Amino acid sequence: MEALDKKEQLNQLFDLYKNLLTEKQCLYFELYYREDYSLQEISEIYTVSRNAVFDQLKKVEDYLFSYEEKLSLLALQTKRKELIDKAIETKDFKLLEALRKLDE
Fold first, then answer.
1. Which residue from 7, 60, 68, 77 has the highest number of Cβ atoms inside 10 Å of its Cβ?
2. CA distance 71 to 86
3. Which position has the higher pLDDT, 9 or 94?
4. CB 31: neighbour CB atoms within 10 A?
5. Chain segment 32-87, per-residue pLDDT in tens
6. Do 98 and 83 contact (CB within 8 A), yes or no?
7. Helix 73-90 and helix 95-102: axis angle, to 10°?
8. How many Å apart are CA 103 and CA 76, to the nearest integer?
9. Which domains does the chain have, with CATH numbers?
10. What is d(CA 36, CA 34) in angstroms, rounded to the nearest whole number?
């Protein structure tokens, strides 16, 4: 997976699953992935080692992918958007039934 694609996917997963992470994990994630802080900058802000920050970010990444593997919220969200777009484009409202089935 390319770095940019992975970063985008991690941000999407974070939006869905951030409530399952600790406050510290959320802070580190947001600074690193959204505010573009370096590991060194984050470690200086929180007076921890670079390695501690790296370990937390790696855990967050592992947790996010694990949650998605088990719950598939991003996959369902993507499928919903595709079905909605297709229904609007084709005016085929039978696709709405497919949307309903996603939640069953």
1. 60
2. 24
3. 9
4. 19
5. 999 999 999 999 999 999 999 999 999 999 999 999 999 999 999 898 888 888 88
6. yes
7. 170
8. 9
9. 1-71 (1.10.10.10), 72-104 (no CATH)
10. 6
Burial category of 14 from C-beta neighbours within 10 Å (exposed 0-12, middle 13-18, buried 19 and up): buried
Amino acid at 40: Q
Phi first, then psi, for residue 35 (nearest 5°) are -100, -5
Alpha-carbon distance of 3 to 61, in angstroms, equals 13
| C-alpha separations of 16 from 11, 20, 47 in Å | 9, 9, 29
Per-residue three-class SS string for the chain: CCHHHHHHHHHHHHHHHHHHCCHHHHHHHHHHHHCCCCHHHHHHHCCCCHHHHHHHHHHHHHHHHHHHHHHCHHHHHHHHHHHHHHHHHHCCCCHHHHHHHHCC
User: Both tokens of residue 26?
Assistant: 């959320």
